[in-house]
Specification:
With 291 residues, the protein is an alpha/beta fold. Helices cover 40% and strands 15% of the residues. It has helices spanning 27-39, 55-66, 101-115, 134-146, 160-169, 193-199, 218-231, 235-244, 259-267, 275-286; strands at residues 12-14, 44-46, 75-80, 82-83, 96-97, 120-125, 150-156, 176-180, 203-207, 251-254. Bound molecules: NADP nicotinamide-adenine-dinucleotide phosphate. NADP nicotinamide-adenine-dinucleotide phosphate binds at residues 14-17, 46, 156-157, 178, 207-213, 216, 236, 253-256, 258, 261.
């Protein structure tokens, strides 16, 4: 049976940079861009309330209101619990995390309203909160699923004991798990974190899958370029193929909004690499061989 919450696309489109994309700053231009992506089979969008300090979600919602036919075609992930200094109501202007039930319930309602969608397909806690009371947080998250506001709850940037305390208090299963993973940040594959994600049945999502662009620098960048030329693919497509080769096939959450770069990544999305090539790229990225 098809899982309606599965990430059924070659990658998600990350919205972290949307607020600074001047060519997408009008609802019409962004609606055109969204429609083109949807027509390419890219219907998953990764938001967070803090991206552009709410502006990412706001712009996205304005584009959907501008072209209402798109709303039923998009699938959204969003995240909350980080309070930016400018939005801290305490008067301290301190950046902090908030996983209290009232804060999360208000965040979910606000994201639904800004995005202009009926449901957040996935809602993730953005960062682990050392002051989290698991039972209270779990009740709020389970309640949002029961109310149909959220399809599934997941986590981002959590360590195993942090998400397991939350899971132990929840009725619903945690579903998506967003972690930083790329040729530039492969630590999770060696310290047990990624194995714990898979063991607990979470669906892994790789944020910053090109290391924010840093995979194209230095020795690794040269290796990616020459191997990509040999294979007749783009170097970015090769870097994503390295990720997909990992068991569990973490789905990349890419950051570029440039149509030509996105099209190249779609074109290269069926590329597979063998074990030796995978380790060769790892070696180039770390500057040393495995033990
Ligand atoms: N959960 C979390 O805590 C967390 C943290 C960070 C990010 N994220 C998510 O991950 C998404 C992606 O993050 P990211 O922007 O760091 O991702 P990324 O895909 O690793 O990096 C994107 C950067 O690479 C550059 N780039 C250079 N050549 C490229 C090429 N050929 N193809 C594609 N990109 C190329 C892009 O430049 P151009 O823009 O000029 O194309 C952009 O600056 C975010 O939007 C967000 O949704 C989540």
């Amino acid at each position: 049976m098809n899982d309606p919450l599965a990430f059924d696309a070659p990658f998600l489109l990350g919205m972290m940079r949307l607020h600074s994309a001047y060519d997408l700053s009008t609802p019409g231009a962004l609606a055109d861009w969204l429609e083109a992506r949807l027509d390419e089979g890219l219907h998953w969008f990764d938001h967070a309330d803090i991206y552009g300090s709410r502006e990412g979600e706001t712009r996205f919602g304005e584009a959907l209101r501008h072209r209402p036919a798109l709303a039923s075609r998009v699938r959204v992930v969003t995240k909350a619990d980080i309070v930016l200094p400018a939005l801290d109501a305490s008067g301290h202007a301190v950046k902090h995390y908030d996983t209290t039930p009232d804060y999360l319930a208000a965040s979910i309602d606000a994201s639904l309203s800004r995005l202009g969608v009926e449901r957040l397909d996935h809602f993730l806690l953005h960062r682990p909160d050392p002051l989290m009371e698991p039972e209270a947080t779990a009740e709020a998250l389970d309640g949002a699923i029961d109310a149909g506001k959220v399809g599934a709850v997941g986590v981002s940037n959590f360590m195993p004991e942090q998400w397991r305390r939350l899971q132990d208090a929840m009725r619903h299963d945690l579903y998506a798990h967003q972690l930083e993973l790329s040729l530039a940040h492969a630590e999770a594959l060696f310290d047990g974190l990624y194995d714990a994600v898979l063991s607990d049945g979470h669906r892994p999502m790789a944020s910053s899958p090109l290391g924010g662009g840093s995979v194209f620098e230095d020795v690794l960048g040269s290796s990616l370029s020459s191997l990509a030329d040999d294979l007749g693919v783009s170097r970015a497509g090769l870097a994503l193929a390295w990720l997909r080769r990992i068991p569990g096939s973490p789905v990349p959450v890419i950051g570029t909004l440039k149509a030509s770069r996105i099209r190249a990544l779609v074109a290269d999305s069926s590329l597979t690499i063998d074990r030796a090539t995978w380790f060769m790229l790892l070696e180039e990225s770390r500057g040393h061989r495995v033990a």
